[in-house]
Design brief:
- This protein has two domains: 205 residues, 3-Layer(aba) Sandwich (Rossmann fold); 94 residues, 2-Layer Sandwich (Hypothetical Protein Yjia, Chain: A,domain 2).
- It is globular, with a radius of gyration of 20 Å.
- With 332 residues, the chain is α/β, with parallel strands linked by helices.
- Helices cover 31% and strands 27% of the residues.
- It is built from ten helices and 14 strands.
- The chain has an eight-stranded mixed sheet with strand order 3-2-4-1-5-6-7-8, sandwiched between helices. Strands 9, 10, 11, 12, 13 and 14 form a six-stranded antiparallel sheet that branches.
Length: 332
């Protein structure tokens, strides 16, 4: 088994005799879900794992970053999960079953659902357990939640949805531990155990497991049920801005624009995600969380020309941001 509980190729015979397990991968914006999933799929080494990606924005390029088999990947856009039942998810899972029965796609023995960073895991779990069709074919195996060692505790204290994700977790995976001190990691792990004593906490760096701590307060009943709150999570102040251009970007000029944006708005810029067509360089993936921008990643393989940028912001006038970006392009 991998960090996400994905079955290795040798485990699949036993799985085929029962309902298919579903791993729900959750975590706040920019906490490293996609990077973790990409590494875990490589480790599992089996093509019978299907992936459903639920993104908050309309422009989807996680498939470029994840590079999973398109036949096993389903993308749901508009990923703010605020309702009790996820009809779009139910349709996607039912669609996988139908495609397999028709012989249009190989059987998937395990499903990974990567939720939006603004999604509550509760409605997803509710849908799998209560849908009259799905409950006979799928079972929720585990809820894995990523927590960024750099900004994770701040997000949990600042954003209700990040706390709700943590409380729903069977397994908490601390990411980016290599970017902070060991003392900071130890403090974070203690706080995570305090918030959710029934979850395991794994500490990772660059996708590798550094250590794993068992739950600090496991009950005899085993895996805790996810308790749903009837109140919807309020994301009314959160907006998504999508920017696109066919022009090649000058890296230094773009860096100045982005730096000024983050300096001005700081924590209100919840997420920056981009695939950039950089002049004299090629395709570059860029990921940022609040004021922190991670090292750009050069992309290989087939990537369509042009640049696509997604900003998820809190209480910022997105039209002003759009105007500033186009002003930047005019002087680029």
């Amino acid at each position: 088994m991998t960090l996400l509980g994905l079955p290795l190729a040798t485990d699949c015979d036993a799985i085929r005799r029962s309902r298919r397990g579903v791993t729900l991968l959750s975590g706040f914006l920019g906490s490293g879900k996609t990077t973790l999933l990409r590494n875990e799929l490589d480790r599992a080494g089996d093509e019978s794992i299907a992936v459903i990606v639920n993104d908050f924005c309309e422009t989807i390029f996680d498939d470029v970053l994840k590079n999973v088999n398109g036949e096993h990947s389903v993308v749901l856009s508009g990923g703010c999960v605020c309702c009790t039942r996820r009809d779009d998810l139910a349709r996607a899972l039912a669609g996988l079953l139908d495609a397999e029965q028709r012989g249009n796609t190989p059987r998937s023995d395990h499903i990974v659902i990567e939720t939006s960073g603004l999604s509550d895991p509760g409605p997803v779990a509710f849908t799998i357990a209560n849908d009259p069709v799905l409950k006979h074919h799928y079972v929720l195996a585990r809820v894995c939640v990523t927590v960024d060692a750099l900004t994770g505790m701040d997000s949990i204290e600042r954003h209700e949805i990040a706390l709700r994700q943590l409380l729903a977790a069977d397994d908490v995976i601390v990411t980016k531990a290599d970017l902070v001190s060991p003392e900071t990691v130890d403090s974070l792990v203690r706080r995570l155990h305090e918030f959710n004593p029934s979850a395991t906490v794994s500490v990772t760096a660059i996708g590798d497991l550094l250590r794993r701590e068992e739950p600090s307060g496991v009950t005899a009943s085993g895996r805790p049920d996810i308790q749903l709150d009837s109140g919807a999570v309020n994301t009314s102040a959160i907006s998504t801005l999508e920017l696109a251009t066919d022009e090649q970007l000058d890296w230094q000029a773009f860096s100045v624009w982005l730096s000024l944006l983050l300096h001005r708005y700081g924590p209100h810029v919840l997420r920056v995600k981009a695939v950039l067509d950089v002049r004299d360089v090629g395709s570059v993936a860029l990921n940022g969380v609040q004021h922190i921008v991670h090292r750009p990643e050069h992309l290989t393989g087939s990537v369509r020309p042009g640049s696509r940028i997604v900003l998820i912001v809190n209480s910022i006038d997105t039209e002003l941001l759009r105007q500033s970006f186009h002003t930047f392009l005019s002087i680029n």
